[in-house]
Write a structure and sequence with these properties.
The complex is a heterodimer of chains A (about 60) and B (about 325). By secondary structure, chain A is mainly beta. Chain A has a single domain (about 1-60), classed as Beta-grasp domain (Ubiquitin-like (UB roll), Roll). Helix content of chain A is about 10%, strand content about 40%. Chain A is built from one helix and seven strands. Chain A has one helix at about 20-25, and strands at about 1-5, 10-15, 20, 35-40, 40, 50, 55-60. A five-stranded mixed sheet of chain A has the order 2-1-7-4-5, with no helix packed on it. A two-stranded antiparallel ribbon of chain A has the order 3-6. In chain A, β4 (about 35-40) and β5 (about 40) form a beta hairpin. The longest helix of chain A is centred in the middle third of the chain and has 7 residues, at about 20-25. Chain A is globular, with a radius of gyration of 11 Å. In chain B, a hairpin with a 6-residue loop joins β9 (about 280) and β10. Chain B has a single domain (about 35-325), classed as 3-Layer(aba) Sandwich (Rossmann fold). The longest helix of chain B is centred in the middle third of the chain and has 19 residues, at about 130-150. The two termini of chain B are about 35 Å apart. In chain B, α5 (about 120-130) packs across α6, α5 (about 120-130) packs across α12 (about 295-300) and α7 packs across α11 (about 250-265). With about 325 residues, chain B is of the alpha/beta class. Chain B is built from 13 helices and ten strands. Classes of the chains: A mainly beta (about 60), B alpha/beta (about 325). The complex binds iron/sulfur cluster and zinc ion (ZN) (2 copies).
């Protein structure tokens, strides 16, 4: 599946099926600092994402 | 397919919250957030239903979430957006704030530093030799106060969340900065010439405020202010999130126990500043000198030729700012 990331804006490809929490770990992203959004809906860490899913990993930490 | 279930209704969960050791569906996550905010408001006597409230709105997740929550809870709250003149970031963020207000029929007051005062933050930084966030913080504080007082708002609300407060507390504690610690409270009472200031989101983490926006369908600005990149505040947040990963709930205990147990011991410290205030000879707001710090920034910065944002960014921030601009 293709995963959209931000700050900086980029895309990475990850093989499914794989749990959302596992993907965060594999990418070295802290769970407390990100939301995983599948096809426009939030999913918890144990949701298994498939190759057909559109996935966004959204950082939530702001420095302002 | 989802495996985890909502703690309340056993339907599929949309979010896991390790600090509550539970998962929630959309509906019950919203309920949890609402209750946390109601508790913060009640415990700290933040707001009265009769108050006229001014929400400081940036177009980011926290300020839009707090505005949405207050309206949901039945308060009367208008917004204040301040145009800081920071490259593309400012007009973009204003668009998010304005659309949010328009879609809900809410009133948004807009102040623009360049149009109304003849300067912007990059220029103020260069002209006064302050770091951008210092010129920015000073300008925003002055305008929150003056716009509130001039328009009859008793309370200014900001969207500071648990992560913001814990990170500032961490920084102040590392330096044992007693004066700042004494003032780091979720409520600052009104004093002559100043509105009450409250932070209703102090019981929600920023992951939760962002999730609130996603679940509620609030379109907020995802990009960061280019000045924020790599600042110390972010470093403290990352440090605390590492602690949180190892012991879920640590951030909330660190901050909320400070407020409950430590802040009362420091209470006598914050008071001195209130006495001995005169009046600014330029704007008439309270000040300790003859001309207030804001009016001095305005005088120096508006006389300076405009400085583009790229010129006041650190090397690393500039590279990130320019590369992200190319992509969008
Ligand atoms: S990061 Fe600094 S310059 Fe940008 S909005 Fe926040 S305080 Fe202002
Ligand atoms: Zn539920
Ligand atoms: Zn003044």
């Amino acid at each position: 599946m293709i995963i959209k990331l931000r700050n900086p804006t980029r895309e990475v490809t990850v093989d499914g099926p794989r749990a959302a929490g596992r993907i965060l770990e594999d990418l070295g992203l802290a769970r407390e600092a990100h939301l995983v959004i599948r096809n426009g809906t939030l999913v918890p860490g144990d949701a298994v994402l498939d190759d057909a899913d559109t996935v966004e990993i959204r950082p939530v930490i702001s420095g302002g | 397919m989802n495996y985890s279930k909502c703690r309340v209704c056993k339907e599929p969960a949309i979010i896991d919250l390790p600090r509550h050791n539970a998962n929630f569906c959309g509906e019950h996550f919203i309920q949890l957030c609402r209750r946390q905010v109601e508790k913060a408001i009640k415990d700290h006597r933040m707001l009265d239903p009769k108050d006229r409230i001014l929400v400081a709105v940036s177009g980011g997740k926290d300020s839009l979430a707090v505005w949405d929550l207050l309206i949901e809870l039945g308060y009367q709250a208008d917004g204040l957006y301040i145009g800081l003149g920071i490259g593309d970031y400012s007009p973009t963020s204003e668009g998010y704030a304005q659309r949010f207000a328009d879609q809900r029929g809410l009133k948004l007051i807009t102040v623009d530093l360049r149009q109304d005062f003849g300067y912007d933050i990059p220029t103020a930084s260069r002209a006064t030799g302050r770091v951008p966030c210092s010129a920015c913080g000073l300008s925003k504080r002055h305008l929150f106060d003056s716009v509130a007082m001039e328009n009859g708002y008793e309370v200014v609300v900001t969207g500071h969340n648990l992560d913001d407060e814990a990170a500032v507390l961490f920084g102040n504690t590392l330096r044992w900065d007693i004066d700042y610690l004494a003032r780091q409270l979720p409520v600052l009472p009104a004093t002559p010439g100043f509105p009450k200031k409250v932070k209703p989101l102090v019981r929600l983490t920023e992951r939760e405020t962002a999730a609130w926006c996603v679940v509620r369908g609030i379109d907020y600005l995802l990009d960061e202010c280019p000045m924020a990149l790599g600042n110390r505040h972010l470093a403290h947040k990352n440090t605390l999130n590492e602690v949180e990963r190892q012991s879920p709930g640590a951030k909330a205990l660190f901050y909320l126990n400070f407020v409950e147990k430590m802040a009362p011991l420091l209470a006598s410290h914050g008071q001195e500043m209130v006495d001995g205030l005169g009046t600014c000879d330029s704007c008439g707001r309270p000040t300790t000198g003859t001309t207030c710090a804001f009016c001095r920034v305005v005088a120096t910065s508006s006389a300076h030729e405009p400085v583009p944002v790229e010129l006041v960014l650190s090397k690393k921030a500039r590279a990130a700012y320019l590369s992200d601009r190319q992509e969008t």
